[in-house]
Design brief:
This protein is an alpha+beta fold. It contains 13 helices and 14 strands. Helices cover 42% and strands 21% of the residues.
């Protein structure tokens, strides 16, 4: 029996070392392109789970009062940068703004921006989702709305959506080339005039981006709305659940293989898209906002590349609490964002629990 306990002890040490070693890679994954090291991309994807496992290891070794506790603890601390992008203990932005000189404050315009992957409004034929979203955005006094996976159906057309959202006078709803596969459509609705706009498509992808120059009381702001390469998480999750229900071992292996292969290809596509978006942001001549569904965690190369040196994460500047935007997979994923240049003063950043999509909307109040 003593030998069994000793074997378990050594196995525990080995597992702790492997777990901590893999988790350490997470703090570097954002700097490594999927074309250079695909393993780092997978570590970045599973980093929330890895950190939870390390916290479990910390608790285990702390109870046993062994010095091995420092290994998983160091792995967690090494990823502090990621943790601050999903957890903020306080928001002092509003208080700081209140303390500024009232005369200087009068020169600012308050702006509320929202981004929401609406999943085609759930293919709702009676417009309930769209109407409830419009009502909520109205109560929050949202000025600009960025939608991903936008679209109507035969009963509730895009013109009907425009009517429902008529309070936002200006809109841009681009369509792709009729000679190509349909895009996963984007849309922008704004209370302020849109002076210029452009659709940006990507090779071998239904995903896309767009930018608009919006005139906000004489100040032109360039806003990017993005839906980067889809992960197909929802589809593969349903497929895996179906195979588990019918207890098909062969089917489960096939579904997992398809999932891994798809993730690998999509990591590469998103990295190319992120590089191009980073270039567009860098050459923007105006104060810039970058919104949308990036299908990537804050630990990823995509996130790090887009942020670059020019943008700030709105959650880090004025958010509070724990932030996730994908409603499934144990609510561990933050993949929808609002980034901004230093021209904006963040006041509040939050993601309400609306149930019209597999994503949650993200809203940010700011001054410009």
């Amino acid at each position: 029996m003593k030998a069994v306990f000793r074997l378990f002890y050594y196995i525990s040490i080995l597992l702790t070392c492997v777990l901590a070693g893999v988790t350490f890679i997470g703090c570097l994954a954002g700097y490594i392109s999927p074309y250079e090291c695909m393993f780092a991309s997978f570590v970045a994807l599973f980093l929330p789970t890895l950190l939870l496992l390390n916290m479990g290891a910390v608790l285990y070794w702390a109870i046993r009062w062994r010095f091995w506790v420092f290994l998983p603890l160091l792995a967690v601390v090494a990823n502090w940068g990621f943790l601050t992008r999903v957890i903020q203990l306080s928001n002092t932005a509003s208080d700081l703004y209140v303390q500024t000189d009232s005369t200087a404050s009068a020169n600012y315009t308050q702006l509320v921006v929202a981004t929401y992957n609406v999943d085609r409004f759930g293919s709702d034929h009676v417009a309930r989702s769209c109407k409830e979203i419009a009502s909520y955005m109205k109560t929050q006094e949202v000025d600009v709305m960025c939608f991903q996976e936008f679209g109507g159906n035969n009963d509730f057309t895009v013109d009907s959506i425009r009517t429902t959202l008529s309070e936002w006078t200006y809109s841009y709803i681009p369509i792709g080339s009729p000679n190509k596969d349909p895009l996963l459509q984007l849309a922008i609705f704004s209370r302020y005039p849109i002076r210029a706009q452009q659709l940006v498509t990507y090779p071998d992808s239904k995903n896309c981006s767009l930018w608009c120059d919006i005139d906000i009381n004489g100040q032109v702001v360039r806003l990017f709305n993005n839906h980067l390469q889809t992960t197909a998480v929802s589809h593969n999750r349903r497929e895996l659940e179906r195979e588990f229900k019918i207890e098909s071992g062969q089917g489960i292996c096939r579904a997992l293989s398809t999932l891994i292969s798809g993730l690998r290809d999509n990591f590469k596509k998103r990295s190319v898209q992120a590089n191009y978006l980073r270039h567009m942001v860098d050459v923007s001549p105006h104060p810039t906002l970058v919104c949308g569904d990036l299908n990537s965690l804050p630990s990823s190369y995509t996130y790090r590349q887009i942020i670059g040196t020019k943008l700030l994460d709105g959650f880090q500047t004025c958010g509070k609490g724990y932030m996730h935007t994908y409603r499934y997979l144990k609510r561990l994923l933050r993949i929808d964002y609002i980034f901004h240049t230093a021209d904006f003063i963040g006041l509040e950043y939050f993601s309400p629990e609306l149930e019209h999509s597999d994503h949650k909307p993200v809203l940010m109040r700011m001054k410009i």
